[in-house]
Design brief:
- The complex is a heterodimer.
- Chain A is an alpha/beta fold.
- Chain A is about 35% helix and about 20% strand.
- By secondary structure, chain B is mostly helical.
- Chain B contains 2 helices and no strands.
- The chains are: A alpha/beta, B mainly alpha.
- Chains A and B meet through α1 and α2 of A and α1 of B.
């Protein structure tokens, strides 16, 4: 009889949607290969810094708008303790690399990581592309943003600055 | 024996039903759907010209499209 219950639970679990991460929860730990094939990135290594985890893909129009602006944020706020982890979800890693090269964003290559099998996206429960998660110095998700338009960057910069001022 | 057959039938029915279910692709799995060949109408200008002709002939517009689709971007 117990086996029967396990079977039913298994069938039910196939139908269950992925659990989405919520504001106030700790960010899930992950390790990912960088797009430039250098050292893997561990989220835990960023503890003590404010981190923006952004999920993007080469086929996603708003992502193309966001990446140059995120790179500017990184340039201007990096010295204050801001880090960007740009998680590329392209099934073919080459597509993500090619997009960064074509947009002359080679500098972003060392912040871009591969998630071609969607493991990190599943951990975060990504609902739409692009999605970004702002994580404070203690590893807690403080805000999340779905979609992107260039006018969003001002509010994002303000949120990051606020978190950078927190100890 | 009858109970075993009943359970087997129920399990088979559950499996068949599961096979019929349609799980939409996750947001990050829509790369192939976003390719131009997957567009509902791959010939945009041609479709616009046909729509224009249709609207002129029928004196009515709309009703030829549906919501949804695309790459999942907002």
């Amino acid at each position: 009889m117990r086996g029967w219950h396990v079977f039913l639970a298994g069938v039910a679990s196939l139908c269950a949607p992925a659990m989405a991460l919520e504001v106030g929860q700790g960010a899930p730990e992950f390790t990912a290969e960088r797009l430039d094939a250098a050292q893997p990135v561990h989220l835990s290594e960023q503890h003590g810094r404010v981190v923006l985890v952004d999920f993007w893909a080469s086929w996603c129009g708003p992502c193309r708008q966001s990446l140059p602006l995120y790179q500017k944020l990184r340039d201007s706020l990096g010295s204050r303790g801001f880090s960007l982890i740009a998680v590329n979800v392209d099934m073919r890693v080459r597509d993500g690399q090619r997009l960064l090269q074509s947009m002359q964003l080679d500098a972003l290559m060392n912040a871009a990581v591969q998630d071609s099998d969607g493991k990190i996206a599943t951990l975060f429960g990504v609902q739409a592309m692009p999605s970004s998660y702002l994580i404070d110095r203690h590893g807690v998700v403080r805000s999340m943003h779905i979609g992107f338009k260039p006018s969003d960057i001002g509010a994002l910069r303000a949120s990051i600055s606020q978190l950078l001022d927190e100890k | 024996m009858k109970i075993i057959m009943l359970r087997f039938s129920a399990a088979l029915a559950a499996l068949l039903l599961a096979a019929c279910s349609l799980t939409p692709p996750a947001a990050w799995q829509r790369g192939n759907l976003a390719q131009p060949i997957m567009a509902w109408n791959p010939d945009g200008p041609g479709a616009a010209a046909r729509d224009h002709t249709y609207i002129s002939k029928e004196a009515a517009a709309g009703g030829a499209s549906a919501a949804g689709g695309g790459c999942g971007c907002r």
